[in-house]
Amino acid sequence: MKAELLDIAIEAAHRAGKLLMESFSGDSEEVSTKTSPTDLVSKADRDAERFLLDFIASKRPGDGMLAEEGGRAESSTGYRWVVDPLDGTVNFLFRIPVWGVSLAVEDSDGALVGVVYDPNHGETFSAGRGQGAWLNDRRLSVSDRTDLETALIGTGFAYSLDSRIAQARIAAEVLGKVRDIRRAGSAALDLCSVACRRLDGFYEAYTQPWDRAAGALIVTEAGGSVSEGPAPAGDGTTIVASNGVLHDDLRRLVLGGSLESTNDEE
Q1: What is the pLDDT along the chain (266 residues), one digit of tens a residue?
Q2: 87, 137, 160, 177: least buried by Cβ within 10 Å?
Q3: How many angstroms separate the CA atoms of 226 and 192, rounded?
């Protein structure tokens, strides 16, 4: 079953990525806003999600769905797909080639398979629980860095102004204790960057399940650690990912005294 689900996820991500690339190369894109003037959604997001939901339903009738742009379905099979049709919408709209398609399948024990496809660079990140993580045909492993001071850390920011202000305070603290910070604009791809050693760690508050489900599994299957904690202000979740050696130090730096509410993902 795991192999079947992974094959479907890879095919679906590749097909959606092809559709998105056709729009990405165009001159304009229909855009609207969601939670704030900076929280954008495009016609390409919605078209890609519609394609993915229809494609998955044709292959796996009865599976549940949780998708970013509103797609929902209850499961009668015990499996649920967590779908981000376009992770990195602002990059997409500004023609910055850092965005991807993220798909995960969950069962009662959590994420079972995960795929993040970067069509701009022809990179397919994938993982199956207990079977390792891969970039195309290369097996992945997280970095072996042991010193937070020399670690390259990724992060991201929310759309709400108040949330960003709280995040900026944490980023200033982190920046003084690591090698440097990178902000690429796609949480799914940032998590994959941890899995393939491009980053030593990543953290971001106010992420949603579709932002992190596939990437978190890819990190853990690459030998890393992933945990969650509260957001710095208001409601929300902070995800922290890194290799196992750096993880406690990075969590402590990012979450401060809130570590009692974090749990490593399986």
Answers
A1: 799 999 999 999 999 999 999 989 766 555 555 555 554 457 888 899 999 999 999 999 999 999 987 779 999 999 999 999 999 999 999 999 999 999 999 999 999 999 999 999 999 999 999 999 999 999 999 999 999 999 999 999 998 889 999 999 999 999 999 999 999 999 999 999 999 999 999 999 999 999 999 999 999 999 999 999 999 998 999 999 999 999 999 999 999 844 433 344 43
A2: 137
A3: 12
Cα gap 91→208, rounded to integer Å: 18
**CA distance linking residue 173 with residue 201, whole number of Å:** 15
The CATH number of the domain where 224 resides is what? 3.40.190.80
Q: How far apart are CA 94 and CA 4, in angstroms?
A: 36
CA distances, 88 to each of 97, 149, 156, 213 (Å): 9, 28, 11, 15
Which CATH number does the domain housing residue 16 bear?
A: 3.30.540.10
Residue 23, token pair as written in the block: 């729009």
Residue 125 three-state SS: strand
Q: Give SS3 for 133.
A: strand
H helix runs in the chain, sequence order: 2-24, 43-59, 89-93, 161-175, 187-195, 209-221, 244-255
How many other CB atoms sit within 10 Å of the CB of residue 116?
Answer: 31
**Is residue 231 within 8 Å of 205, Cβ to Cβ?**
yes
Task: Say how far apart CA 239 and CA 104 lie, in whole Å.
Answer: 17
Q: Name the residue type at position 92.
A: F
